[in-house]
Write a structure and sequence with these properties.
Pfam families: ADH_N (PF08240), ADH_zinc_N (PF00107)
Order of helices and strands: EEEHEEEHEHHEHEHEHEHEHEHEHHE
Number of strands: 15
InterPro entries: ADH-like_C, ADH-like_N, ADH_Zn_CS, GroES-like_sf, NAD(P)-bd_dom_sf
Radius of gyration: 20 Å
Organism: Xenorhabdus lircayensis
Shape: globular
Keywords: Metal-binding, Oxidoreductase, Zinc
Cofactor: Zn(2+)
Number of helices: 12
Distance between the termini: 12 Å
C-alpha cells in the first residue's frame, strides 16, 4: 500500500509500505477512505516531537471501512464504516476507568506517533471496540471526519474545561481549525457574547460566519482596551487559548475577569510567563489537557440531528495520493486560506 512516511525533521515521502496486519485479538484493520492533516503533524515534521521515530506513518484522524477484525472484537464487524478516534482506548486500565482516555496505559495518542497512523491506504487500530465509532448511514463523511480529533478537542479542552455557561462572555484566542471548533462547540452552552481574536482577517471573517459576535485583530487593535470597552471594564468570564505561543497565553491572562477560567488548548513548544502575582488574587482557574474523545458519541448525535455542521471547517480537498501537495498548502495556511483539508482515497 501507499502511505506518508516520516523520515526525520523536514522529511516526508509518499511511498510503498507493507499492509498492516492484525497483531492482537482486539485489533481491526481499516481501509482509509478519508483522512486529514493536523497541526500536530506539522510539529512532528519540524522535529518538535522526538518520540516519533523515522519510518513512522503519520496521521491520527480518519474515516474508513473495516477490512478485518481480531477474534476478540465484539462491537465492530467487517464492512462497517467507522470514525477512527485519534485516541486509542483499552477501556480497562487505571486511567480509562477515570475516563482519562488520553492517558490510556496501552493507548492514548499513539496513531501517527508511536504506531503507524492514518495517512495511508490502510491502518491497524488497536482496541477496536473502544477506538472506532460506527458511522450511521446518511451522516456526512466530512462532518464525521472532524469528530476524529478537532471537534472533541475544542469541546472538551476548550469549552468544558473552561466551564462555559449561559450568559458568559467568552474570548477565543486563535481562529484556526481548533479555535473555530471551540467556537462551534461553545454555542451548545449559550454564552451571551463570543469574541474571536486573531491576526488573520480571513479567519476572523469565517469566525463571524460561525457565530462570533465580535472580532478583534491584535495587529491593528489593542486587545485589552477593546475587551475593557466590551465588558464595562470587567474582562471575560472564559478565555480559551487556541494557538500555543507565549503572546496568546499572555492575552488570556490580560483579559480574564475575576473568578474566570483560562482554558489552554494550544500546543506550546516553549515556556510562557505565568503572572501569578496578578492572577492569584483574582481567583483564576487555569486548565490544560489532551483530548480524551469521550464526547465523540454525543457529538455524532448532534451532527446527525443537524445541531452542528463541522463540515463547514473544510476548505480544501485533495486525493490521498496528492498528500505531499496538501501538506505544502496546509503549511502555508494563511496565504492559502486553509482551515481543514480532506484527503480522499481513490
Amino acid at each position: 500500500m501507499k502511505a506518508l512516511v516520516y523520515h526525520g525533521a523536514g522529511k516526508k515521502r509518499w511511498e510503498e509500505k507493507s499492509l498492516p496486519q492484525l497483531i492482537e485479538s482486539t485489533d481491526a484493520i481499516v481501509r482509509v477512505i478519508k483522512t486529514t492533516i493536523c497541526g500536530t503533524d506539522l510539529h512532528i515534521l519540524k522535529g518538535d516531537v522526538p518520540t516519533v521515530n523515522e519510518g513512522r506513518i503519520l496521521g491520527h484522524e480518519g474515516i474508513g471501512i473495516v477490512e478485518a477484525v481480531g477474534e476478540s472484537v465484539r462491537n465492530i464487524k467487517v464492512g462497517d464504516k467507522v470514525i477512527i478516534s485519534c485516541i486509542t482506548v483499552c477501556g480497562s486500565c487505571h486511567y480509562c476507568k477515570r475516563q482519562l482516555y488520553s492517558h490510556c496505559e496501552d493507548g492514548g495518542w499513539i496513531l501517527g506517533h508511536k504506531i503507524d497512523g492514518t495517512q495511508a491506504e490502510q491502518v491497524r487500530i488497536p482496541h477496536a471496540d473502544n477506538s472506532l465509532h460506527r458511522l450511521p448511514a446518511g451522516v456526512d463523511e466530512e462532518a464525521a471526519l472532524m469528530l476524529s480529533d478537532i471537534l472533541p478537542t475544542g469541546l472538551e479542552i476548550g469549552v468544558i474545561n473552561g466551564r462555559v455557561q449561559p450568559g458568559h462572555t467568552i474570548a477565543l484566542i486563535g481562529s484556526g481549525p481548533v479555535g473555530l471548533s471551540a467556537l462551534l462547540a461553545s454555542q451548545f452552552y449559550s454564552p451571551a457574547h463570543i469574541i474571536m481574536i486573531d491576526t488573520d482577517e480571513n479567519r476572523l471573517r469565517v469566525a463571524q460566519q460561525f457565530g462570533a459576535d465580535t472580532i478583534i485583530n491584535p495587529a491593528r487593535q489593542n486587545v485589552v482596551e477593546e475587551i475593557q470597552k466590551l465588558t464595562d471594564g470587567i474582562g471575560v468570564d472564559v478565555a480559551i487559548e487556541c494557538v500555543g505561543i507565549p503572546a496568546t497565553f499572555k492575552i488570556c491572562q490580560d483579559i480574564i475577569a475575576a473568578g474566570g477560567y483560562i482554558a489552554n488548548v494550544g500546543v506550546h513548544g516553549k515556556s510562557v510567563e505565568l503572572h501569578l502575582e496578578d492572577l492569584w488574587i483574582k481567583n483564576i482557574t487555569i486548565t490544560t489537557g489532551l483530548v480524551n474523545t469521550n464526547s465523540t458519541p454525543l457529538l455524532l448525535k448532534s451532527v446527525q440531528s443537524g445541531k452542528i455542521s463541522p463540515e463547514k471547517l473544510v476548505t480544501h480537498r485533495y486525493l490521498l495520493s496528492q498528500i505531499e501537495t496538501a501538506y505544502e498548502v496546509f503549511g502555508n495556511a494563511a496565504q492559502e486560506k486553509v482551515l481543514k483539508i480532506v484527503l480522499t482515497a481513490e
